[in-house]
Amino acid sequence: MAKSKNNNADNIIVLERDINEPIGDYAVRCLEYNIMTMNLVPGTFISEKIISEMLSISRTPIREAFSRLEKINLIEIYPQKGTMVSLIDTSIVEETSFMRMVFEKEIIKIVCKNFTEKDIKLINKNIEAYEKNINTDKLYELLDLDNEFHRILFFIADKKLTYNLIRDSIKHFNRVRIFNMLEMDRGRTLIEHKNILEHIKEKNVKKLLSLIEAHITHVKDDMVFLKSKFPEYFK
């Protein structure tokens, strides 16, 4: 269940800083994690002072982190008013969904021509990991596994640059996907990934195009339910 709106980051989880991780990157990672997992729900106001104290770092990298997160639509900065975790913008999510669908329908055609047995084993290993963790509270890890499934497809198609270009543009989209995991059925993604794998092995492009389109665009229907239940979280 998503948490109620709060001020000053009462529910924030402080992640451990990696060895040699730049302070600015650490601040971004912590804030992004908490926004994505709904510990910082849409509409929450956060302050440089409180975040810097919680993370035990100076306010300058926090300010820089706010700026970076604003560029990917996860926070909004209002001069003289404060910094707020952005509301979920359905138009951004829908446009991102469209972009992914267009790319991945072309990617899957190439995958059917290029895949090897090693690739099939890699996809299957990813699906097994997702299934193993599906009933845990590790939602961020589940999202990573979901993204990894799609990353593998791009890499099989030898389109690594394309994947890297869209990776940072889908952060807003990913927040809805985690919200979906909190409130709705997690099993659908697992079933669809299994079906995609089976049809890749059969090289059934026609069926795969239909599966990919449905898989990517579910988010639009999901938002109808989520918006009806939590209207205050959406623009």
TrEMBL record:
InterPro entries per UniProt: GntR_C, TF_FadR/GntR_C, Tscrpt_reg_HTH_GntR, WH-like_DNA-bd_sf, WH_DNA-bd_sf
Concerning SMART domains, the annotation shows: FCD, HTH_GNTR
Q: Which UniProt keywords apply?
A: DNA-binding, Transcription, Transcription regulation
- Describe the location of the HTH gntR-type domain by residue ranges: 21-88
Q: Which domain of life is it from?
A: Bacteria
Q: What PANTHER family does the entry give? A: GLUCONATE OPERON TRANSCRIPTIONAL REPRESSOR, TRANSCRIPTIONAL REGULATOR, GNTR FAMILY
| Name of the protein this chain belongs to | GntR family transcriptional regulator
